Amino acid sequence: MASFTNRGTKKKPSWQYVVSAKPKPIRKGGFKTKKEAEAAARDVEEQLQKGIHPNLKKVYFADYFETWVDLFKNNVGKNTKERYLNTLETLKEHFEGVYIQNVTRQSYQAFLNEYGKTRTKATVQKLNSHVRSCISEAMEEGLIGIDFTRKISLSGLEGKKSQEKVLHYEEGKTLLSYLMDKEKKSQSDYLIILGLMSGMRFGEMVGLTRKDFDFFNHTITINKTWGYTNKMHEGFGNTKNYQSHRVIYMDKKTMKIFADWFEKVPDNILRLIFYSPSSKYKVISNGAANKQLKFTLDKLDIDTISIHGLRHTHASILLYEGASIYYVSERLGHDNIDTTLKEYTHVLRELRQRDNEKTKSILGKMYV
């Protein structure tokens, strides 16, 4: 809403308008008539409605995002930082020479639609979450007046469904039995066993040292990771989130497997259990572990999954066997329960059907 004041005299009028805006009102005077001031104020209000602040210097969309990443994402992990930089490169490519004040919901939606033609929906969601956080800051600064990411429709290719990434219970038993019977187990074999029986992330497993194993209490402490790609930190680093710092209980047989292995294998200066001196990153590579898992599953005539799929398998088995969603979330080191609920919706849906049948049986017995 604009207000108007004559700062001159009746003979020599000098009209000024004041338009409400953030971070401060927009003023301009020197108009000979009130009508001229009203017309100019309307132009300003129209610009503000489009998200353009006429008194602020225009900034290129990609440049603003880059500055925002440097200022507010300076302390994130190297892998996470790389994802923000990937988003930056995408914005540079699609919004070259476009001011952030000129981006509209329609133009941004068109960009996401095009981007989603060759990416999974999860990838589109991740990019949009980066942009939304950045735009929130731009609005706080008063740089733009409209959140063009609001009520955006997200599209994209369907990623591999969670249930396609796991082994069924019997398949897990078959895999474990096969590896246990092998006389000469490779590092990859031990890592596969640990992944299946602990649900740890790959970076957490290769970051384990001997002191993390408590063979008396049958626990493993997870409080660090190891950088195994050039996009990650070098050497030891933080876990994915604070909740990923955890101590998990293990079964006695798995702990004995590793206790026996530690006696056979010489220690190393870093005390890493998956140490590989010939490797660029000094640990067994994710590629080598996945290659060994595929080779083993092919031999057992089981559909291939990835090492990360062992984590999903572990969680699914626990849920099917009655472990609470809260326990599984804590054991996996998820940042919140919503992450677990979203990831294992298919399992919970099947469990609900089973519980429905159980409920009918329990309540039916009350009539006896």
UniProtKB/TrEMBL annotation:
Residue ranges annotated for the Core-binding (CB) domain, each copy included: 59-139
Residue ranges occupied by any Tyr recombinase domain in the UniProt entry: 162-358
UniProt KW keywords: DNA integration, DNA recombination, DNA-binding
CDD domains (UniProt xref): INT_ICEBs1_C_like
Molecular-function GO terms, alphabetical: DNA binding
Gene3D superfamilies according to UniProt: 1.10.150.130, Intergrase catalytic core
Lineage top rank: taxon: Bacteria
Pfam families: Arm-DNA-bind_4, Phage_int_SAM_3, Phage_integrase
A GO biological process held by the record: DNA integration
Record family assignment: Belongs to the 'phage' integrase family.
Protein name (database record): Tyrosine-type recombinase/integrase
Organism of this sequence: Candidatus Sphingobacterium stercoripullorum
Lineage: Bacteria, Pseudomonadati, Bacteroidota, Sphingobacteriia, Sphingobacteriales
